[in-house]
Amino acid sequence: MSEHIYKHINLTGSSKVSSDDAIRAAIARAAKSVRGMHWFEVVETRGQIEGGAVKYWQVTIRIAFTLED
């Protein structure tokens, strides 16, 4: 059984649609250059209010990926 060592990075995704969409956008963008991603956790969620409604979502996530040998 091999031991896993993880490195963490924080990313902030944004979306006009939803907080889930902001998370997916951040992960999709990271997937273009980060290999070995395994999990994420939500660190912070915030949004912009305009006219009494949510206008924009921003979600900061911590992504963990394994270090290569």
Q: Could you list some keywords that capture this structure?
A:
69 residues, alpha+beta, Dodecin subunit-like, 3-stranded antiparallel beta sheet, 1 helix, elongated
Describe this structure in words.
The chain has one helix and three strands; from the N terminus they run E-H-E-E. It has a three-stranded antiparallel beta sheet with strand order 1-3-2. It has one helix at 19-30; strands at 6-15, 37-50, 53-66. The protein has a single domain, classed as Dodecin subunit-like, CATH 3.30.1660.10. It is 17% helix and 55% strand. The chain is α+β, with helices and mostly antiparallel strands. A hairpin with a 2-residue loop joins strand 2 (37-50) and strand 3 (53-66).
Quick recap:
The protein has 69 residues and is of the alpha+beta class. The chain has one helix at 19-30; strands spanning 6-15, 37-50, 53-66. β2 (37-50) and β3 form a beta hairpin.
Tally of separate helices: 1
* Structure classification: alpha+beta
Shape type: elongated
**What order do the helices and strands follow?**
EHEE
The CATH superfamily title: Flavin-binding protein dodecin
Give the strand tally.
3
Number of domains: 1
Mean pLDDT: 94
Helix-residue proportion:
10-25%
Which CATH architecture is right?
2-Layer Sandwich
Q: What strand line-up does the widest sheet have?
A: 1-3-2
CATH class: Alpha Beta
Give the biggest sheet.
Answer: 3 strands, antiparallel
Strand content: over 45%
Kindly provide the radius of gyration, computed on alpha-carbon positions and rounded to a whole number of angstroms: 14 Å
Q: At the third CATH level, what is the topology name? A: Dodecin subunit-like
Distance between the termini: 15 Å
